[in-house]
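FORM 7B: Structural annotation worksheet

SECTION A. Query
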Amino acid sequence: MNQIPELPDKKQLLQLIFDSLHLTLLHYGLWFHETEHQIGLDKAIEADFQVWDQFLQTTLSRVTQTLNISLVGDIPEPLYNLTEKQLNDLSLEMCKNWVACDGIWFQTIEKNYDYEMFTTKRINDTNWVRFSRIEAGLIMKRLNLPPNGGLKALREALPHRQYSRICKFELEELPDSLILRINECRVQEARKKRGLPDYNCKSSGVAEYSYFAHAIDPRIKLRCLVCPPDKHPQEYWCAWEFTI
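SECTION B. Predicted structure
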């Protein structure tokens, strides 16, 4: 006779919930990766726009119904009732969490599989190529920026990047160019506090900013003015020039 298995205890149930979240994120990423492989990154990004909107609403609906939480429009009531300051603080913590995830992956690969950092940097730079194009597309969609919007569109988009929201930067608009300077870099400042040398991030910076700008407008060209391992002024860690 088949016996009904005992229900897991509270700790096990919580772990099952976290496992589902973990596996969902991995499966989402696998779908995106294979879609890119089969039909290209641009079409994968287009598909992601459609998938994410449906998936987010499905997720919110399931969670709120299960926990008996009301929806205000499409927003769970507890989130809807937060003040603008609370929402801003939460959004900043989500940005910090994103960069923490990036750093944990980097350190894990470097520590366990790549003592000379060659493979780690190659993975990192490749990820920035893809991520920057994806992020640019999301920002353009949210801000309703037109394609081929030139330096004006880039100027509007850059402050909305995940990393821009958690570091100090300045933008200088010149007649034929746009200069971005990162005054306080969260990654480099953390290394400085631990007594570590500057991280050689020039290759990843070139990948990141060139592909972000290209997604905004393919005519935009990037020139690195300074970035570690280059010597840099005390006022900023790196500087980038965008032109058409």
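SECTION C. Observations
The helical segments are 10-39, 41-66, 77-80, 84-113, 118-143, 150-157, 186-193, 202-216. The first strand starts at residue 71 and ends at 72.

SECTION D. Sign-off
Analyst initials: ____
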